[in-house]
Amino acid sequence: MILLNRTLISAVSADKTVSPVPRKREELLDAISILRRERNAVILAHYYQDPEIQDLADFIGDSLELSRKASNTDADSIVFCGVHFMAETAKILSPSKAVLLPDVEAGCTLADDCPPDEFRKFRERHPDHFVVSYINCSAEVKAQSDLICTSSNAVELIKKLPNEYSIIFAPDQNLGKWVQRQSGRKLTLWPGSCIVHETFSEEALLKLKLQYPTAEVIAHPECQSNLLAHSDYIGSTSKLLKRAELSRANSFIVLTEPGIIHQMKLSMPDKTFYEVPGLDGCSCNSCPYMRLNTLEKVYASLKYMKPQIHLDEPLRIRALQPIKLMLEMSS
Ligand code: 13P
Ligand code: SF4
């Protein structure tokens, strides 16, 4: 699978029998527009994509919004500019459509750190538990879950579950701990975390707060508790965007992947946004998986209709049930 995409990209530039990727930005954008019309494709992008991909997309959203969009689009093909679990969710919801992920190596540490076999053993140790899984997990883990949630509806959904339920929450322990505090429910947590949100430095955040005392701190719940404790508002990527739009504050310290700042600046050109660096000032606050997608790969995926997501039908049907329940239960 991994080789496939690399091979595809190099074939595009090396093989004389296939048309080369247009080198000039304008030509590349025009070529993508022509292809997306020919393929009747919709381009969906997560907020953590590079700005040039966000600018090209038909729809930008958080995980929940992108799932909804994937389930009700009229397009024949979906180019999913995000990571593997997101494209896989789109395929689970829209099996008759071709779902393209421009770079098949675009994974996610949360999904990768929850192998289905290990998860099965974990569930077997808690046989009476209701299983709630964050959408950042594989189809195999979804198929073992009773309910899927995203960062925008996790608290709402957990609060709706009967009080007598014992609940497993996987795979993000930071999100799980935040949901526990918000809902007052005890959760049995799978010990996963996101490499990007774990990397934010508390020291750098405190320095920024001292430097910009009137800035509001807005944070994604995948951050660790010590960082969330310094935050004025916590929510999914879409909720952070809305919060900044509605807030009276003029400046914001943004504790999540900085791709979202592109939409914040477009929507609020008069407000100021500060990103928080990683530990030791590294630039690892950018998601290395999300950023694998490029315009060239979007072009190649539409041109060759590869790499596509494929799923066994029995697995798809099992993984669909908890996603459907989420869509029915969330407002
Ligand atoms: P959202 O649900 O806010 O889109 O978050 C997805 C994600 O992967 C965050 O790291
Ligand atoms: Fe996964 Fe973290 Fe990247 Fe989101 S930011 S896709 S949780 S690795």
Defining key terms:
binds iron/sulfur cluster, binds 1,3-dihydroxyacetonephosphate, Rossmann fold, 14% strand, alpha/beta, 331 residues, disordered N terminus, four-stranded parallel beta sheet
Give a description of the structure.
By secondary structure, the protein is of the alpha/beta class. It folds into three domains: 2-107 and 289-312, 3-Layer(aba) Sandwich (Rossmann fold); 110-194, Rossmann fold, CATH 3.40.50; 200-281, NadA-like (Rossmann fold). It contains 16 helices and twelve strands. The strands form three sheets. A four-stranded parallel β-sheet has the order 2-1-3-4, sandwiched between helices. The longest helix has 17 residues, at 313-329. It starts with a helix and ends with a helix. Bound molecules: 1,3-dihydroxyacetonephosphate (13P) and iron/sulfur cluster (SF4).
Strand order of the largest sheet: 2-1-3-4
Number of strands: 12
**CATH topology of the largest domain, what is it called?**
Rossmann fold
Number of separate structural domains? 3
Look at the structure and give the mean pLDDT: 93
**Approximate shape:** globular
The separation of the N and C termini measures 37 Å
Unreliable spans are 1-17
Strand count, sense and barrel status of the largest sheet are: 4 strands, parallel
Helix content: 40-55%
Could you state the CATH homologous superfamily of the largest domain? NadA-like
Bound compounds, each kind once, are: 1,3-dihydroxyacetonephosphate, iron/sulfur cluster
Q: Determine the number of helices (DSSP H or I, runs of at least 4 residues).
A: 16
